[in-house]
Amino acid sequence: MSIDRGYGIATSAVLADSYDLDALIADTEAAKVAAEAAQTAAETAQSAAETAETNAETAETNAETAETNAETAQTAAETAKTAAETAQTAAETAETNAETAQEAAEAAQTSAETAQTGAETAETNAETAQAAAETAQAAAEAALDSFDDTYLGVKTSDPTLDNDGNALADGALYFNTTDNVLKVYDLGGTTWKQTTPTSAQQTNIDAVVADEADIGTVASNIADVNTVADNDANITTVATNDSNITTVATNDANITTVAGNTTNINTVASNTTNINTVATNDANITTVAGISSDVSTVAGDSADIQLLADNIADINDKVSKTSSTGSAVLPTGTEAERDGTPSAGYLRFNTDAASAEIYDGTEWGSVGGGGAATTVYAEHANTLSENAEIASGNNAVSGGPITIDTGYSVTVPSGSVWTIV
């Protein structure tokens, strides 16, 4: 069973980054409260400005009255001076007092004008604050409307329009209460896509999680899986034989037996040349697949199938040959394609070195012989891309120059000699 959870997880991550509903609602309410507070402060400031303006006008009236009184006193002083020299001193004193009063009146008038200017400034600031509050409130309302166009809320089925009656936007979301899943709208495909698993799907996911040990076993065979993935055309052919696959699936006990023979399966996987040869016989395979009645008969012979599965080790242990008098077909590949954990006696053809090689239990070594009688030289690579070690007690000779790639080395044991000529 294969369950793809990637899409739902990815979409949930985007949802968590872009649409924090609680945070957005909280920010909207905070902005609204701030706007109302700013408006109240503006009205209070405007009232204070009007009161200050009234006080300034009253002070100005008092100043004018004081100025009039001063002028009257000055006239009386001058009259008193003319009437009597004795009263001159008193008149001069009165004049001085009048001048002092006039200066006080002028100072009061200046203060009144300053207060009026401050009141006008306060009124301007209040109007500015009120405008800013109205702007903030409009922005908050716009943000709430934008979010409402993206998250459509809770619904029983897929909507065709947003909450304002407009066309759906790419990435729109809603919660489907029928299936209990969150869905996202794909504008390109004009479809609603599920972002979270249903209860039935979650049950299957839990079942897969419970098979963690088996999944780990499959994951460890990733090299074999990649080999199979390369044979995509052959897999597609097998996929068309769905009814036959279903029949095989019912033989779970036999499949388990085959799964236990991982060593043999890896051996078969390494014979990609032979597998590809079989894959080219597509016409014959199609003919066999078409004989459904015979296939059903074979499927019914579970005992024979079990016997065949038990003998799979013997089949996999045999190397293919071209004919009874021809050649054995060795596994072929590069040095990078060698077995990960080889055993002593493993034999293969190395395409990098263009020669057969055998594993002695410690390292791979070339297999001698096979050259023509007229050969007067031996060829070898001039670049070393792996660690190498001369066997203890042996000497080695190479034709130079030799390049050893970074990170690799050649170990020459004590008593041995490596000569480069």
Largest sheet: 4 strands, mixed
Number of strands: 14
Large-scale geometry: elongated
Q: Give the uncertain stretches in residue-range form.
A: 1-19, 291-296
Alpha plus pi helix count? 15
- The assigned structural class equals alpha/beta
* Mean pLDDT across all amino acids: 77
What is the H/E order? HHHEEEEHHHHHHHHHHHHEEEEEEEEEE
Radius of gyration: 49 Å
List the helices and strands and how they pair.
Blueprint lengths: L5 H13 L2 H63 L4 H63 E5 L17 E4 L4 E6 L4 E4 L4 H12 L1 H9 L1 H9 L1 H8 L2 H8 L2 H8 L2 H9 L1 H9 L1 H9 L1 H9 L1 H9 L1 H5 L15 E2 L13 E4 L4 E5 L4 E3 L16 E2 L3 E2 L6 E3 L4 E2 L5 E2 L6 E3 L1
Helix pairs in contact: 2-3, 9-14
Write a structural description:
The chain is an alpha/beta fold. It has 4 domains: 6-155; 234-316, no CATH class; 330-374; 380-421, no CATH class. It has 15 helices and 14 strands. Strands 1-2-3-4 form a 4-stranded mixed beta sheet. A 4-stranded mixed beta sheet has the order 5-6-7-8, with no helix packed on it. A hairpin with a 4-residue loop joins strand 7 (355-359) and strand 8. Helix 2 runs antiparallel to helix 3 and helix 9 runs parallel beside helix 14. The longest helix has 63 residues, at 21-83. The chain is elongated. Mean pLDDT is 77; it is low at 1-19 and 291-296.
